Fold this sequence. Notes:
Chains A, B, C, D, E, F: InterPro entries: 4CMD/NDH-1_regulator, AhpD-like, CMD-like. By secondary structure, chain A is an all-alpha fold.
Amino acid sequence: MENNERYEKGIHAMEELFSEEVRTGMRHIQKISPDFWDMIVSSGFGDLYARNTLTMEQREYITLTTLITQGAFDQLGVHVQAALNIGMSQEEIIEIIIHCSGYVGFPKAIQAMGIAGEIFKNHDDASRKD
Amino acid sequence: MENNERYEKGIHAMEELFSEEVRTGMRHIQKISPDFWDMIVSSGFGDLYARNTLTMEQREYITLTTLITQGAFDQLGVHVQAALNIGMSQEEIIEIIIHCSGYVGFPKAIQAMGIAGEIFKNHDDASRKD
Amino acid sequence: MENNERYEKGIHAMEELFSEEVRTGMRHIQKISPDFWDMIVSSGFGDLYARNTLTMEQREYITLTTLITQGAFDQLGVHVQAALNIGMSQEEIIEIIIHCSGYVGFPKAIQAMGIAGEIFKNHDDASRKD
Amino acid sequence: MENNERYEKGIHAMEELFSEEVRTGMRHIQKISPDFWDMIVSSGFGDLYARNTLTMEQREYITLTTLITQGAFDQLGVHVQAALNIGMSQEEIIEIIIHCSGYVGFPKAIQAMGIAGEIFKNHDDASRKD
Amino acid sequence: MENNERYEKGIHAMEELFSEEVRTGMRHIQKISPDFWDMIVSSGFGDLYARNTLTMEQREYITLTTLITQGAFDQLGVHVQAALNIGMSQEEIIEIIIHCSGYVGFPKAIQAMGIAGEIFKNHDDASRKD
Amino acid sequence: MENNERYEKGIHAMEELFSEEVRTGMRHIQKISPDFWDMIVSSGFGDLYARNTLTMEQREYITLTTLITQGAFDQLGVHVQAALNIGMSQEEIIEIIIHCSGYVGFPKAIQAMGIAGEIFKNHDDASRKD
């Protein structure tokens, strides 16, 4: 697999996960370091999300859990959105956070639930407008 | 829901996940602190694994991911076994670790893969004997 | 102990620790997930803070330390307030952070001290108004 | 305060906390790096444990909690011993771990309880011989 | 070495690393706890940055890496500035973050790159004004 | 750059860092998951260590620091060896750990120093035999 192919697969995975607005926001990294941007797309998305064996939904189970566990709350919002975009329900996302609470403790789970609640609200507002 | 019911549900979930040998090993905690044992069973298993919305398999996706992310390698082995016990394949578990590598870095992912490899080997040996 | 009793004990512990304003703020979690709210109250407060053996003050020593160590700075503020509410002094809280610095490193200890300083200032301002 | 005084205070605090056997074991660090040893004694013990405001027991509440939270299980054993040495009870140490479980999750709390159990057993055996 | 000498060395190291504006900002800690401020200066800077064996630049390699790894993003900005102040290039700092990405995962590396990008921009703007 | 080229660069970097014995040991991962092995070599070593801008020694500064900070002590030993292999001195490695102590706290720094001491001893013994 050529590097170009890895990059294309990464871009494709990102289009499936993120809205155009989110993807445009992510591009600010490309201006700081084009090399790092290539790695994010090719390694972070092309090498991981474009693999078989697991569905996109199963991959978001893993991604949401690892972000909550490591306290990476800055990235949690866009992946809650991504989970909704690929068809996961709010109940499922809430349940992931509840299951996490026993493994990471309440402080991180509460912070995650607050962030998810914000995304849900914006999502519901946007749906209502449609 | 009475406390007794939460405890019973927890024991039931543990029976689904762990072999008798593993469950007997876990009981050493009960000798140190009966109260803490009750909490592990009632809160850690009864309140979490016995809930609806997610399947046992989906819960193990979350559990394996959070253990890898927080470097709780002491507990990872029994949950790799649990994942196999409830019908997850070795390929799926490997894929969870691979997906994690982009989110937690290679050192933790490599350590997790080594532990999974050990469990797979014992599992294959045990199957061969049957 | 019935679930209802665990919940009541949790609410009671929260009333001892947090001002009405803080408790009202926490209720936004209840709107996102009533089940998770029940767990926070029953398990997080009822099962832990309402136990014997340790005083409320000793429990806040543990809570403040674990929040600083895991970098859960979003929750640190309300527990610094809680510590003051149950009668701990500013000197004691400062000393906990200083002791932590040798165990978690300066970056987390400095961030904790800044947060504590903010709470102290608001607290002193409120006292002055009385 | 001269450096020498900080070092002396640190040695004094270590004598209060650790058995001679434990202190001799710690000295292997001195052979690898005498400078680092000086820092451990002067900064880690002299500057922290020898301060006023908190008792030795209160300091062990903080130390045990931060070690459990950061998963520093290699050092947890000697501090469980230290806690017993300065007069804390097994019930108190168990209760610290139980309180931590809600803040750090079950995996780390279970590992901590297992380590504490080992130390308690050795301690009880030693007491019985006396 | 007397305490006073350790403090002086720490102040000297801080002057080499941080702008006057940054150092003034740090002084808010001194108002909350003069003792903790002394420790930060004497132990955090005097005992560490003023040692031989490593250059200031090598020490910033370590500092930037540990801040990224532990997710101490609040402090990362001032140390990116410090790295530029002692003559490190933007390319070097970007490369440190890229190298980290394989060890800590993409979420923390992406957040670090965003923070570095902000500092670079302010730095370039300030240079242009000169 | 084709994937094959990334893999070759990774193998080359690994040969520069690790002894044949260490590299053979690492190959057990390849038996568990050939895909993950390819990623470790191509992404973990080819994409990172084979880049320009930083020297091998500067990359080991970063690697040692991130391993100490995240408590990845299982991997620390081989990277202390790698640091010695590429010409870093024991004094330099000790100094990296000392600098880390102020940022990650004493427990992790002490554990790192103990591991480094073991590697130094084996290294000195091996040198003496030559």
